[in-house]
Amino acid sequence: MAMEASAMRRLAQRKLEKRSQNGNRTPKRVLSGGSGGEQGGGDSDAEEGSMDEGSCTDEDEDLEVNHNRLLYLISLYNTQQVGPEDKNADQDGQDKNIWVRRVPLMVLVYEGIVAGIFDYDYAPAPDIVDGKRVYMNISQEGRDDLDDLREAGMLYGLKLSSKKYQSTVALRITTIGEEHLRRTLTQEDADAVDGVVFGPNKRHVHANLLKVSWDRRMGRFVLRCQSGYEMESTITEIESVSYVSSPYIPSCVRKWGRESKRNTDRTGALVNAVSNIKDELDENLTLNDVRLVIGEWIPMGANQIVALNDKLGSSERVQGGFFTSQVDQNPDSSEFIGISEGLTEVNILDFDETAYVNFEAEVHFPEEEGIIQIENFGIHINDEGFINYGLRCEGIMHAVQDYLSLDNLSRLLVDVQVDSSKIIDNLMSPHQRVMLDLTYLNDAEHREKYNLIFCSRINKAGVEAMPTAEEFMDREANENELKQVIGDTHASYQLSSDDEVLIVGKNGMVLCSSDTHRLEPQMVSYLSLMTRNMFMRSLFQRTFILADTLKHIRELIDTYESDPNSITTIRNLLSEASGDIILLSEIQSYLAESLQEVVLPTVPLDGAAQKLEAILNIEATQKRLVRRVHDMKKNIEGARGEVSSLRSMADVVSEGKESRVQEAVQNNTKNLEDVFRANERASASLEIMQIVLAGSLAFDIIDRLHGLYLGVAADIDWANNAFGFIYETPGMLLLVNMAWWGVLGAFIQGLIKHMGEQAAGVMSIRYKINQTINWPAFERFICRMRPEVEDGDTDKNTYIKKFTWDEPDAVLWKGLPPRIEVTVDARYHYLLKAFLQISTKKSKISQREAKLIFFRRMRDEGILTGVVPGLEDAVEVAAAESARRSTSRGAVSVVPRLSMKTWNKSTSIGGGAEGTFSAGPDVSSRNLTRAQKSSTDLPG
C-alpha cells in the first residue's frame, strides 16, 4: 500500500504541474481519488486529498473514469484461467504472464471511443502493422493516459523487436494497478468495458474476449473470440475533411519563373462543405496562415533529373499536362481509353535540365458527396534526391486562412502523404521504384515523410495570448494535439519574445513566426537532412534483415541433408541476397554523394535565426549523417564477403552431391554392364535353342513327309518305293534330315533379320517449341486423338504433362502414321516440346514434310497461331499452303465432270493396258474422296 500511495502522489504532483501550466485551469482529479491523502499521513498529502475532494468538476470525473477503465481493460487481457498443473499458474489457477501489445490495445481503445466508454478524441496516425506502415485512427489522449499509468507504476512496459527489426511495446498490469482497481473500480465502469471487449450475449470468461488480429487480405483489423463471433474494426477507415489548398514552394529553392498560383477565390466553396468525421472534435489549438512542406529523399542523380525533365516536357512549348499511373498496355494503337478520375495535372514553374525542377501538381480524386478537396501541390525535386511537397492551406472546413484546427489538419496531412507518393511514383524510373521497394520492404507506397508546418500564430481555445514554448509541452491537451501532426514531441523552444516558437517532434516540426520566410533556408536545409535520416533508418534496418537472411543460408548449408530442397533454396536465397547487396551498395553511393553536395544556408544576424541555428546545428547534423553513411558501407561490404563465403560453401555442397550422384551412376553402369553381359549369354543360348528347335521341326517335317512313322507301311507301298533308296542306304536319311535342317534354319534366321531391319528403320524428330497455345483448343484436340500415354510432372511452380498418340491418317503421312509425343505446361499454357517417331521402312515422308504437316495441323486446330520462329520459314510455309490450295481446287473440279453421266468407252490405263471404265454416282463419290485425300498428300 505504501508503494501505491507513493505512486499516486507522484502522479498527482505531475498532474498539478500540468494544470498549473494551463492558465490556472481547475485541476483534474488524479487516479488516487483522494486516497493518497488518507494514507500518506503528511501535510502535503492531506492538502492533496482535500484538493481532490473539494475542487472536482465533471471533467475531473471523466479523467478518473478513463484511467480506471483503461487499466481494467488491460487487466482483462493480462489474465487467463489455466489448470493448476500449469507452471505459470498462481494460487488461484490463473496465468498472469500475458502481455497485450500496444497496437491491438489502441484498436480496443478506438472501439471503446466509438462505443462511448472513453472520452477521447482520435486522429489518423501511422503505425507498423504486419511489417507495413498503416494509417489508423489513434487516440493521443489514450496513449497519454497509458503513459500516465506507466509513470504511476500501474503498468509494466516491455519493448519487443520483430524479425524485421521493428520495435513495439507490450503492456501488463502491476500489483499496484491490481490493488488500485480493487479499491476504486466501480461496477458501472466494469460493465461498460465488458460490453466492448466481450462478444454479445457471451459469458464474461477469457475464452469470450475479443482478440484483435490483422487480416492481411482485407487490409483491416478483425475482432473475434473463440466462440465464433467476429466483427471488423473501422480504425483503418480514415475520415476526410473539406479543404482548399494552393501550391507552395519555399523561395529558397526557386531560381526563376512565375509565382505559384493562389486558390483563395475557391474558398467560397467551403461554406457548405461537410466531412465524414464521426467523433465530436475537442479543438484546443488552431493555427493561422498555415503552409505545409513535406519532405522525403529518394535515390536520384543528374541523369534521372534529365529524364524527369524530359518526361515532364519542361523544355517544350506547352509544358506539363495530365499524368496518370495507369500503364499503356498497347502503345502502338491509335487510341487510349482511360478514366479521367485520378489524373494529376502538372504545370512547370522553373527548372534546370540537370539540377532541379519545380512544378505545380493538382490531384483529381473522387470524394464522397459534399466533401470538397482542392489538393494543389508545389513540388521541388533536385539531383541530390531531395523532394519537398508544399501546400498553402487556404481553408479547412469552415475556417478560412486562420484558426485552422490541428484535428482537421492531421486528416489533411494523411491525404498529402498518400497522394504525394502516388504523384512521384508515376514520375520515377522503374529502377528507382525497385530501390525504394528494397529499402521499405515492398511498402514504398506508404513510406515515411517528414512534416514542416509554418504558421504565423498558434491560438489556444479560451486564451487570448499565445502560449509559450513551455506551455505547449504540457503532456496533456496541447501536446496531444501537436502529436497528431508531428508525432511524439521531443522539445519546444522559444526563439524570441515575439511569439516565435519551434516545436520539434519525431516526424516533423512546427515553426511559428510572423516572418517565416527569413527562416525558411535553415528549415528547408534541415528538412533535407531529416529526410536522409529517415531514409537511412529504413536502409540500415534493411541491412540487418539481409544479415539475418545470410545467417539463415548458413544454417541451411549446415543442415542441407535434412531437406531435399535445400540446395535449390540456398541458390535462390544467395541469388536474391547478391541482388540486394548490389542495390544496397548503389543506394549507399547515392546517399554519400548527396551528403557531399549539401550547401549550408546563410544564417541571418537576428537573435531568432541565430538561436534556430544553434538548435538545429545543421553542420554537425550533416557530419553525423556522413559518418553513418560510411558506417553503413562497412555493413554492406561485410555482407558481400559473407555472400562470397556462402557461395563457396554452397559449391562444396553441390560438388559433394554431384560426386555421390556420380558414384551412384558408376555403380548403376556396372550393374547395367553385368546385366548386358548376362543378356548376351542368354541371347546366344536363345539362338542355339532356335537352331535346335529348327532341327527338331525339320526332322518332324521329313518324318511326316514319308509317312512311315504312322505304322501303316504295308498300306503305302508308294512310300516304300519312293524312299527305298534312302532307307536302304546307310546314313542317307540322316543326310537328308541335316540338309533340310540347314535350309529351314537359314530361312528362319533370314526372316528374323528381315523383321529386325523393318523394326529398326525409325526416324526420330525432336522440336523445342516453347510457344503459348490456345488451351481449350488443345484440350479438344487431345480428346479426339485419344492418347495412349498421359504423363504428368508437378511441383510448386509448374505442371508439366506429356501426351502420346498415333496419328490416324495413313494417306496424309504417306504410309504408316507416326507416333507423336508433345510436352505442355498445363499451368501457363505453353507447348514446350514435340517428338515424332516415323518408320522409314513403312512411310515415304521426309523430315521437312513431317515438320510442315505437324505445325500445319497445330494451326488448323487453332492450337498455334502464326509461324513458329526458329523452326519454320515463313516463305516455305506460304509456298506449301499455296500449293496445297491449288491442288485441292484442281482435284475437286475434275470429279464432278466424271459424275455427270454414265459412259462406257475404252480408256488407256497405265502402260497401254486397255479396260472399260463405268462411272456412276457412287463411283464419283469415291473418286471425290480419293481426290480430297490426294490433295493432302503434299508437303506443307
Automatic annotation (TrEMBL):
Residues 924-940 have a biased composition (Polar residues). It comes from the Eukaryota. Residues 1-59, 905-940 are annotated as: Disordered. Residues 33-43 have a biased composition (Gly residues). Residues 44-59 have a biased composition (Acidic residues). This is Uncharacterized protein. It comes from Mantoniella antarctica.
